[in-house]
Here is the input.
Amino acid sequence: MINWAHALNINSFPDKPEKLWVEQTHISYVFIDRFVYKIKKPVNFGFLDYTTLEKRKFFCEKEIELNSRLCPDIYLGVVPISETKYGYKVENSENPVEYAVKMKRLPEEGMMQNILNQDALTKKHIDLIVDILVSFYKSAKTGTGVNEYGSIDTVSFNTEENFAQTEKFVGKALNKWRYNAIINWTRTFIKKNASVFHSRIKEGYIREGHGDLYSANICFDNLKKVYIFDCVEFNERFRCGDVAGDIAFLSMDLDFHGYWELSKYFIESYIERSGDRGLIKVLNFYKCYRAYVRGKIACFTSEDSSLTDKTRQKELEQAQRYFDLACIYSGFKPRIFVVFGFSGTGKSTIARELKNHTLSNLIASDIVRKNLAGLPPEEHKYEPFEQGIYTQDFTDKTYKKMIDLAKEESKKGRDVILDATFLKKHHRELVMTELCLADIYWIWSTAEDSVIKERFKKRALDPDISDARWEIYLAQKKRFEEPIEISSEKLIKIDTTKKIETLIETITTRVYK
Here is the structure.
């Protein structure tokens, strides 16, 4: 297997570019100079097979053919890459060892992902996209040979394939409870909406579409023209299907980048222009499906040994974000774990272990407090009780910041752990009020005084980021307000002298029931 990222250089290309850079996806190397050359990797993911030179050449040709439907002036043809005595040469046919798709280079400033990152996307951009898509789908191939891809059997095959191919990433990119929740919701939706899927076929909404309609494959030319490129060529099952699947993909992508209002505008505009009012019935289903697909692809990329460890970790984190979004569409409410109790009761140990088991975001008061004070987390401030950075005012500020951070994460679909003492009723009520859209559980950490005193002795020998001491614990006990405002079904009181595995199982069984 040739690693083309290292095999080609500026001398390999016919125009001898001054600058050349390469980008990688899980299935391609993309070389960019005055033109763009895309080489397919010899990989097999089950739904995609590029393992032979013949297959790669065939799919290069298929890519040209299919993308000519939306932007014929961009795709220039399939070119050979030969191994010569002077090294590998692109657009040389004397001894072909590989093939590439050659394209015109689109303006970087017009790439939709760049526009999204600059917070510069507007309704005018959306209007251009809608204009071209309405026309495209009206003329796209349908009927025999296409309609079967909108059937319940095919839709179920696609979703089940996703679940099977991501099972090994459970515990890495999403927890087992979320994985099962998405599966159950998906299967139930398909079963309950059989007549809807059938009517979509009957009404002519199953088309040979794009299959990969999101911001990475869209480019604008000064708001005069939009290019929608890089459709799925490798699998008809992904390219053909309900038009709603393509539309949902771009809407999901806008949601992913935080453009919720423009996502809504896109859907409303498309429905108004196309007359496809039934699309709304399957929109969240296909949004969930598309978010899950993107999560799956990010998981695959995270296993690519040719990438750096940092890049692979970033891809895994990206996968988590997509799976969070899939949870939102499936109606799975984010969980908030509030791990609270006196210092020394082991709440931070519970919080950290809970994070590992649930893949939740952990927001710890010790870190937030010191960040607000401009201090590194490891720096100790052994203040008297409720003095210095531990005054009531500073504690109020710390809790407010923690809640704000939790709110942002839960909006994105992520489960969150709050680690703080929460001694006062009004602080706990603030959590309930501000995070009311999430499902909140209160994990009350307890232990006997003798156990806690021993823990503080050990902490003095091996300090962590906490500034708490035995005298602080005693002062907290005097100021503590019993959590009588929390309902019994939301309150989980634990004795932290028990095995950590038992405690985590107790918590997760209650929370993810």
